[in-house]
Write a structure and sequence with these properties.
With about 300 residues, the protein is mainly beta. It has 4 helices and 21 strands. Strand 4, helix 2 and strand 5 form a beta-alpha-beta unit.
Amino acid sequence: MAIKIANYPRYVRPQSGLTLADQVFEYYIEGGLTRFVAVFHGNNSEWVGPVRSGRFFDEHIARMYQAYLVFKFADKRVLDYFATTDIAQFLVVPTIGSCPPFRLMSARNIEDYNNNYFNTVLWGECVTKNDLPNDRPYLRGNFGSDVPQLGGIEGIRVFTYYSEYSYSEWEYMPGTGEYLRFQETGDTLNGREERYAPLMDNVTGLQVHAANVVVLFGYHEFANPYQEDDEVYHIDLTGSGEAYVFRDGIGYPAKWNRLFKDQPLVLTTPAGIPIPLRPGITFYEVIGSNSYASQGDGEWFFHHTTP
C-alpha cells in the first residue's frame, strides 16, 4: 500500500506509521509545503496518517510498487485523470462504512479534516469482502550490507530545504548505522534562524529514521497556465536523473533509473555501477531538477527549486 501522510499543518505531528513503512517519499506540493507517501510492504499498522489528498506524483509510486494508493480525495483535475488510468481500481479513498478502514483518532484534539487515519490491518478484510486484487507484487531490490569502493564523501548530516516553511535534517548515528530525522519547528522569514525538533512516530514512539536517505532530482512542470495559479505540479519520475545516496555516513553522487514502469528505481553511480541500499527503511527526498547541492565537513545541503 502507498499511503499519503500529511506533514503540515505542523500540529498534525507526530504522524503515525512512518517508522513501520518500508519506503517513504517526500515531495513538494504547494505553498512551500511537502507531503509524504509511505509504502507498506512488510509491516502493518492500525494507525497510518493523518491521510491527506492525492497528487499527480502519486501515480509513480503506485505503479512502481504495484500498490493500492490510499489518499483522502484530491483536486478534481487529479481525480478525473486517475479515473482514466489503469490504476483506477487500486485507488482507496474514504467512503461511508468500515471499508475502506479510515477512522478518526479520538486522542487528537484537532479538526476532522486533518485527523483521518488508515488501518492496514483491517484492509485485508476489505480486499476479501469486495473481491479486490490481492496478488503480492514481486519487487526487485538492490540491498546489501556493504558497498563497493565507489569514492563516496562523508555524509553525517543531510539538510533538505524546500522553502522557508519546510526544511529538515537527517543526522547519522554510527551506533545504529541509521539516520535520524529532525523537522523544522518554525519558518525562516525575516531573518529567523532555522529551528528543529525530532520527528516522532505516534504509533511506535520512535524517532523517524532511515537506513538510506536518497535525494532525487526530478523535473517539475505545469501542464498549463491554469495549473500554475495554484501549483498543481507534475513531477517526472520516468527515465533517469541526478541523485545522491546516503548510507553508513557516506554520500554517493548517483543516478536514478526507472528501468521498468512497475518496479522500484535503480540507483547507480554516474558511470552505471549499482549502489546497493542498506537493509532497512529508505527515505527519498524529491526535489526539482534545477535544485542545487553543496557539501563540506560531512554536511550536505540541498535547496529545492521549481519552475
